[in-house]
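Subject: for your reference before the review

Hello V.,

The reviewers asked for a structural picture of the protein, and I figured it would be easier to keep everything in one thread rather than splitting it across files. Below is the amino acid sequence we used in the manuscript, unchanged from the supplementary table.
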Amino acid sequence: MTGERYVLLALAPARAPWFEAVAQWSMSAALAAEFIKCVSAEEVRVRLSSGRRHSALLVDADAPSFDRDVVDAARAAGTTVIAILGSREPSAQSGSARSARFAELGVAAELRPDFGCDELLDALERNCEMIGRGDQLPPGLGVASGPLWLADLFVVCGAGGTGASTVAIALAQGLAGDARQAGRVLLADLARRADQAMLHDAPDLGPGVQELVEAHRVGRPDPDEVRRMTFGVPRRGYRLLLGLRQSEAWAALRPRAIDAALEGLRQAFQVVVADVTGDFEGEAEGGSVDVEERNYLARSAALRASIVVAVGAPGLKGVHSLGGLIRSLVAMGVSGDRIVAMLNRSPRNPRARAESARALAGLLPEQRLALASPVHVPERKLDDVLWDGAPLPGSVVDPVVHAVQAVAPRLLDHPPPSADPVRVRPGSLGSWAEPADFEAGRP
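And here is what came back from the structure prediction:
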């Protein structure tokens, strides 16, 4: 043993029977452990971020806040997660399937709700370390392996009124025209104010993004289950994932579950086109965690995207808004060579188009070398086409698809960086002795 006792965090409903049992074992010294009760995920996160070491987080599987977010917060702090099975666990689910689901979440071990002191001690000895001093550094964390293959993700974003949702439809339709990808192209409505259901005259309210994210909160649906949450659009060749039924529903979506849902979509389809809101403000820019979570669908998709299509409108206001959108993407971490600037409903006059391109370049002096000239999509009356559910005309589809396909080949050898940068906590990198200490024989 490397320490003196276990320091255990516990997250469960207040009246969970094992809560009281572990507390009694700790107080009677039957278990060499310090037991800290928590009744909310927020309290768990505060204690994990305090800088103090914890051996394990015991979390009740019946707790409403048991999900990917609380498990990832514990693992990021070097704390092992042990799940206590609850009555809501599906009785028909085999032990091996349940263990695989928990392992995918990051849970190190599981215990029955009526576990004894010896069973808990055995799980702690196999998965945790005792802690003697509060200032000891946590043990190294293993890196979880990701899936072997993920589909290309193309993100389309733009300010309201620019026609970004229509551009997303055009891109999905054009990519679905490739026979090799027939039925394997998905248009996912990830916008906070979702319009794709209206543009597709979708009579059903669900399933959609909310059900998809909830399914990934504590599990990993297989690709067939994910595909069953989407709807076919046979006249255009792609499938559609409906968006939020109300814009306020973003509050029910947890960040780590959103990440897992995006990964699930990319494992179920060959190409995913995401229509997102053109608002990427996060905690680093505005100092608000709530704002970052409100925009997390757009931020997570854009950071993982192979290509981001930024859509603007012609004219003074439209070009200015497009420049601001591109600057916000670059500030968030999207490299300029992955951004395709697009002016929708662009005039036919070559001189007017050239002036728009010069104006956009003047707004982006830092990104001028990496960013290509904007793509111009001509003006077309599409209301009747959308109303009838007919394919969009080639004059709209072709410029969008050709622009994306022209950029994609040079990015194949340069995948986007990880979307989950980790902030280095003070003291987490350890320390070292100065040469004078070695010469003097001091450790």
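For the response letter, the relevant points are probably these. The chain has two domains: 6-127, 152-411. The first strand starts at residue 6 and ends at 11.

Happy to draft the paragraph if you're swamped.

O.
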